[in-house]
User: Fold this.
Amino acid sequence: MTIRIAEADITTLDVDAIVSAAHETLHRGGGVCGAIHSAAGPALERECRAKYPEGCKPGDAKITDGYNLPARHVIHAVGPRWRDGTSGEESLLASAYRRSLEVLVENGLKSIAFPAISTGIFGFPADEAAMIAVKTVRPFVDDHPEVDVTFCCRGDGNLARYRALLPE
Assistant:
C-alpha cells in the first residue's frame, strides 16, 4: 500500500491514470480539468463526447485514454458543487473518490493521482474535502495493496493540509 503526497502539476505525472475534477458534461472546463484537456490535446474531448454523450453524474467517474499526457489514462470524476453542506455533498465527494479507484482497478491499472476534487470552482471547503479524500482512499488502498495513490497538491495550503492528514 502506498499513499503519497506530491507537490506537482498533475499533467506531468507518469502514472496509470490521473483524475480530472470534471464537470458533468465531461467537456473541457477550467482549473484542473482545463489543464488536463490542454495537455492531453483535442482527442481527449473528442473521446469524452463520443464515448460518454450522456456525461457523468456527480459521485461517479469515467475513463478515457491519456493521449499526450505521461499518464496513460484520465479518470474523469465528477464531484459535487458545494451548497450548504446538508445536500449530500460529503457522500457524493466520497463516492467520486471511491468510483475513481474502482474504475482504476476494473481496468487493471495500479497507480493513480488525484487533485483536490470539488475544491476549485465547485466551492467545496478544502479542509473538509481533504479529510473526505483521505478517509475514503485509505480503506480502499488497505483492501487493494497493489494500488498506489498520489494526492497531487498545488500550493502550500493544500500540501500542508494533506501532510497533516497523512504524516510520514
Summary: The first helix runs from residue 31 to 40.
